[in-house]
Known about the structure:
single chain; alpha+beta; Four Helix Bundle (Hemerythrin (Met), subunit A); six-stranded antiparallel beta sheet; 10 strands; about 10% strand; globular; disordered C terminus
Amino acid sequence: xxxxxxxxLGHFALILASLVALMQIIIPAIGVFxxxxxxxHLVHAAALLQFFLTAIAFAALTQAFVQSDFSxxxxxxxxxxxxxxxxxxxxxxxxxxxxxxxxxxxxxxxxALIVWFGGALPIRLKTLTLSVQAAIASAFYAFILLTxxxxxxxxxxxxxxxxxxxLLQDPGLAFHPPALYVGYVGLAVxxxxxxAALLLxxxxxxxxxxxxxxxxxxxxxxxLGIALGSWWAYYELGxxxxxxxxxxxxxxxxxxxxxxxxxxxxxxxxxxxxxxxWTLLLAILAFSFSLLxxxxxxxxxxxxxxxxxxxxxxxVFILAILIIFSGGALALYxxxxxxxxxxxxxxxxxxxxxxxxxxxxxxxxxxxxFIGTFWPLVAEIIFGRMLSVGPPFFEIAVTPFLxxxxxxxxxxxxxxxxxxxxxxxxxLWWVFLSAVLCGTVVLFLDNAHSTLGxxxxxxxxxxxAGVVADLAKRAGMGRGGIRAALWRIFNMPRxxxxxxxxxxxxxxxxxGISAITAWESEDIRLAETGDQYQISDRYALRFDxxxxxxxxxxxxxxxxxxxxxxxHEVAQLFPEKRFYPVSGMVTTEAAIEMGFLRDIYVVIGDxxxxxxxxxxxxxxxxxNWIWLGAIIMSLGxxxxxxxxxxxxxxxxxxxxxxxxxxxxxx
Length: 666
């Protein structure tokens, strides 16, 4: 009985939140254009109340999952009383309706954070930003309440639920969607700032300084979310890959590319007052592509292990949201963008030019991914042809742009603003020679079997050594002694440290990708208990035992495998094939002996009539460097958030005098 009351309370709170969001759009916006301060300040209370009500709704749904309230259709369809608590909690967002509720919860949280930490924002910009946030929220509240109600009840409650998809019953997938959603939704803040600035006709260095930390937060969580999804696919799906260019993987990668471009563009707008219009456009496109990802996951037009199986009607609703907000913002940009003028000039050889080149490479890479993802749909709809665009296309079409980007980063990082000279790049000669030496040594040791692998590692060295060279230059090594150099380097702005960490993390990821792509080895065979065989020059596998085990909500066939290195036992692995009775699904659980320089990856297949089992064993060089690099990149973003100027921008309480903008006076 209590559960029923709580669920109804959650539903009612969600309806109230949608009404508050409507109020947050209209009243404060009127206050902005009529210059009524009291009406503008209502936006603060509305944003906080909207977050409070949405949090109540989300807490009520969480309580229904924890208590296994099967009178709610969502709980009955996606939970089971025998599930571990972690997966009951992750079941809240491991489905379409619950994930959309998490989406609006995060959106309302960001609005509340703008209220709490946006003390230095001009009141008119802050009010319009929160009104745009509320408009986005209103669209998704309507979508949830009209098509995807998470509190919909069943006339007759079943005794037991159907359970969560077994592929989602994993710690990695418990945290992957929330991290990704924070990244997606965080881009709404940059979008809202851009639309508000276009409405006011005011974009300056201060605006870029306010936009950048919100974009950084989004970028950090997007990076972590993508990395978690890649890691989950690596060890959970049993195929041993870390990226497959799946359409829904691409849907998260495209906003990440635009967000990365936006971060660099906002830096130019903040430091030099350039690229203002371009920064506005990137803010609009970044969020538009995050909405596109939401559409791809929920429309049913693409088949993916990541996608929610939903009806086309929901996809049409989200498509309408995408068209209204993205189309409306782009139309506003076309109308008002020409009023945003950048008057600073810079030389062809300068940091500004390097960052513009950086932006072009990132945007073109994103557009290539977009074309490759959607072209099969276009071909089927327009030409009636069934096409498949797979990993080879993306690897050939996208990789050159990302390689060019990595080659450019050390050059751009060390160049001064406005103008640079080739003399100022002389310190990069030793970096270049180090990269060439690394590639040459690798080619020699590998007998030139993998030229691309050697080039990839050389690129990673170029990027990592470039970070070191840039730090050494800033520290003034050889000028004033070691102590003075260390003092200078440790007193650099946190944003510079963050940039260095992010670039170094990218180098680590490139090294991991290059090594696993070039030198992964594979052994597939039928084996039986007692077999021992070589899986590489140094490693052997001994099949010790095969038996049945009982899990909390599954039965598994588990193998016991011993890894031997030069005839010495080094690790025991337990790969499994699991069967989940509730859903009737079978999953493959890989066993991985993780190391800093390599992973040994073992999976088992189905048993044969003669008792033998298919065993797949892989040696994956530097596999963990892929995700280690992503973690370092995320730490770089978090370090940049600690920069003094962003802290001052968030805690300041000064209020500029409210004067009509020249654009509005026209």
